[in-house]
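REQUEST ID: PR-0412
SUBMITTED BY: lab tech R.K.
PRIORITY: routine
TASK: structure prediction, single protein chain
INPUT:
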Amino acid sequence: MSEFVVDFLPRDLHRKGLMATSRRRSALLLALLGSMVLGVGAHSWNRFREAQSRRAVSLALTTSGSKVDDVVDRLAGEQQELRRFLGVYDRLALPIEQSDLIATVTHLMPERTSLAMLRMEVREEAPQKAEAADAAGQKPKAKAKAKGAPKKAPARWMEITIRGFAASNGDLYELERRLANTKPFESVSVSENKPTDVPGSRIQEFAVTCRVPLDVRYARPGRGDAFAAAPKEASR
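STATUS: complete
OUTPUT:
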């Protein structure tokens, strides 16, 4: 059975319908295209903001890293300066108080002796002389080893000269014996002893010399052995 479709609409209405459909299709396509453009733009903007944030964080880390390096360099310089200061201080500062030495000397003096003058001088052995003395008794191999070994600090000591008066030679030598048996005095000797006339009597004018090593540390009495000496470590 055959079917026939008859269009009773006028041609102008049919044409208008086709145009309206075409316009709606175009509007939908434009809307879809616009939404796609907006989506791509929003995505690109978000990516741009994220890249900017990462760049800002990277710059901040770089800046803070350089500041940290500056702080580390400054602290390293201050540490080196402190080490130099401590090295100079170790060479200049005395490990024992002069007042303690004076009190010890006056305490050791016998009753019939009097103190006229007490002189204390810090002396240091020249490094060249010390190295020459050590090298004189060494073999060639020992000399080669000595060259690679670290240099020792020059020896330091305090030269003490005690001048005074004693009623007799026995009192003078009693003072010498007491000093020789008392730490930290070393190399005690009578360098001068001559009789002197005073009204009504005759006394001995003397001079006693001794040494106190300064390359050791001393402990005050009551904090261990009296004038206990220990090797002095150099500051690093």
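NOTES: The two ends are 117 Å apart (CA to CA).
REVIEWED BY: pending
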